Amino acid sequence: MNTIKNVRHLLKCKEITCRELTVRFLKAAEELNPELTAYITLTREAALKTADDVDKKIQKGEELQPLEGIPFCLKDNISTKGLRTTCASRMLEDYTPIYDAAVWESLKGQNAVIIGKGNMDEFAMGSTCENSYFGGAKNPRNLGHVAGGSSGGVAAAVAGNLAVYGIGSDTGGSIRMPASFCGLVGLKPTYGAVSRRGLIAYGSSLDQIGPIAACTEDAAAVFDEICAKDPLDMTSEGSEPVSDKLTGSVRGLRIGLAKEFFDGLPESVRRPLDEAVDLYRKLGAELVELEFPLLKYVLPTYYIIACAEASSNLGRYDGLRYGHRASAFDDLNDFICRTRSEGFGQEVRRRILLGAYVLSAGYYDAYYNKAQLLRKSIKNEFSKMFSRCDVLLTPTVPVTALKSGAGMTPVQMYQTDICTCSVNIAGLPAVSLPCGHDGKGLPVGMQLIGDKFSEDVVLNASLAFERETEGSHLKTADMGVLL
Amino acid sequence: MTYEMVIGLETHVELSTKTKIFCGCTTQFGGAPNTHCCPVCTGQPGSLPVLNKSVIEYAATAGLALNCGINTQSVMARKHYVYPDLPKAYQISQYEQPLCEGGWVELSGGRRINLTRIHIEEDAGKLVHQGGAVFIDYNRGGVPLIEIVSEPDFRSAEECTEYLEKLQTILRAVGVSDCRMQEGSMRCDVNISLRPKGETKFGVRAEIKNLNSFTSVAAAIAHEFDRQEELLSAGGAVEQETRHFDADTGETSSLRGKENADDYRYFPEPDIVPVIIPEDVLQRLRDGLPELPDAKRERYISALGVPEADARLLTKYRKVSEYFEAASEGCESPKTAATFMVTQMFSLIPTEAERENWSPAVSAAQLNELVKLLEGGKLSRNIAKRVFSQMLETGKPATDFISEEDMAGFDAGALNELCLRAVAENSKSVDDYRTGKEKAIKALVGAVMRESRGRANAIEAEELLKKIIAG
Amino acid sequence: MITVDELKKIAALAKLSLDGEDVEALRRDIDNVLEFADTIAQAAVDLPEEAGGEASWRFREDVCRPSYPAEEILKNAGERQDGFFVARQRGGLI
Hints:
heterotrimer, A: alpha/beta, two-stranded antiparallel ribbon, 39% helix, C: mainly alpha, 7% strand
């Protein structure tokens, strides 16, 4: 399995040059992408240029920065100057940003090698990655299944060994769900830990950038490089690096279990989670039974807020400054309406309409306002739970990777976010890590939720599990670059 | 039936900060199209607003100067509407928790116009319509604005324009805006309704958008009063609607009715944390407030003895009052400098824009020197007047225009001699005066002044002449 | 229940054309989601006192940063002329 540590070692020992490494990843991506659709755009030139810079440094014997020379995949809703950024939408099919996202600034600044821009659900709206204008990403663990959404392409690239790690974004589970479906570690940081500047907004009060990686230590290493406070994002707080704090011990850790998260869970998902709970008990963690009665209101609360913010954030796509343009129209208003209806896919249009509806005069109080009140209540309920435990253990998704083209109704689709989206509502950090398999050999994900800015606590619990199970659940597919 | 108009004003004022409200681009007026722009103020995907500290300070200062309460916590909100000049399809403004609430502006009659609120928001870009196309320039997009919302307290167009002038004077005095209507840095929406005189309930109002001169405000109100009066008198009803004023025709026309009213879908801006003003910052702003125009005017009148009309002129523009205070510095009677300015300078600097900029040919120090020469008895008032107009023409100091003869003064003996001669040579005027024509004395005084080439003191001459005639 | 007329009004507000859209199917979809969203109506909200004070006096200093060249700003525009973005009142086949 490729990890940042391994690849770094190979580079440092000059077992492989960064250029050779990069060429191998690019070549594998070119070969496999028609099948996987992990990438929307391969950024060959940028990758090779960086690789050469890294090789020069290695030749001179200079110290490498933590992510220097490591090939990675960047979700295609993160702004990259001079590199096409589409949000998997026809609307931005030909859009090339004129500025860099804060996260990409940091990574570029330390010569991280960008292999390409990762596929996703259009504007990050979806749970399968099938809402991509460029076709959905396949799950490398089983090509008949979806990679999960919305950062599905990023997870597919990592699980298919077409990148060592990836950077995704998570509004209601978009890092954790694909991580869970593809058997990877995905960290959704505390709201404000990572700058959102340059992240093309879906739900501004919910969006957060984070890593998708092959193991916990990689997720921690990437988080450490992107968690600086950004004065140009007013909601940015920044966070302390966590890698040095990880001990792998959970002795005395209070792990909370709220039964509502496990209601109606299929046996195939429940079993690995039960085993994980037993294992934590064996490792000396204290298990605390909790209640989360508001869970039943979490999904509507989430969708009302997310759609309201999305309808606002997506108003700017009018075809005048960037993006798709309608060619036939009656007048300027008609131009804007047609541009938007042609440029946005069905799910995006649906969420824009929902969002406009819940904000409109006469409905605002019943929907948006009520959802905001519930949001506060949900935050309070989490605070109460975290007074009694350090980490909440839940399933990441109540199901394993769905079959491609399963054709669910919108509401059925939304239900898959039930365990993840409350974390975004409350702005908390959570990690999803593989804890076993269902009957069909598809990975089952376990979610560990922490209190604000306790990334170290959740990652530490994740690391403890990984070590105790000797990484047996960490596995990438048998494809791509196997170093 | 006679009707009374009820008017409320919403006034938009651009703040004169160096940079825009949410990015570091300059707020300078003009510039080649789209050259004062960045990803934030053109709404590029993923860009985020970062609130400018000076905007909050300027807006709070405006609030303090207008007697508002300042909310130590306020919230930015998104106001949604689609128009090509608005790159994000929402304007970042304030809605439920504005920065300032309450407040008032006092008109000359002592009547107070109450304010509802003042909030901060961003300006939109500029559109040029040409042929079948719209040309868009975002240089102005993101320039900070305050919107000052009044209560429906106005009952005439005159009150409205006086209020607007007052706002201009105050906001300029505290240095938060240049309030230039011609450059669009001050604009006004008028909400107007009519009701029968004596009625206490409000009628249905029309809103006239985007008026950009005092004359437009007055003309739009006049036209709208006539239109609504005609409607109501004929038994019709006024529709609640938004109207446009055409400055060329002087008429208002309907833009959109109530059924097409915008649904702005306000909600709190998630990209901007709540605006908190700590008490120490607020105190610093309070302490930093300069003397306001009303207080200054009162001081000029009561402490400096400046006539009220002059005091009004001198306090209208900050630069003018600064000039006056420098010119009268250390003088026995500050009123003298005021008189020079009002009688001889203002006529040479007739436009409001020039007065606002106030850069006369004569410096305040030069005028100060002249006033001191006069007060020291070195010059007569008449000569000083002559010298001052020569100074204004040339920009040169007083000493360039004062001859030895001017400085020679004029003793009592010489005055007596000239007065006696004037009485002897103007018997007609003397007779007229004796038969009760009081004004005839002026002709005699004029003769004395002429003969003395302006050096005589006219008041002394008049007294002496009266004495001589009375025998 | 959302009606087709309401849906049309919302679409106009959201600047989406419903041309070529199966309006009734869309209405049903939206209606289903709203029905699901309606469950929050029953939620009793019991909020304790606001803790407050999480924001602080931390804003941008009023210092100019260089703007972007106009050609960068206009780079992704479909139509531009003399440094302006251009919008057309009419276009294409209609």
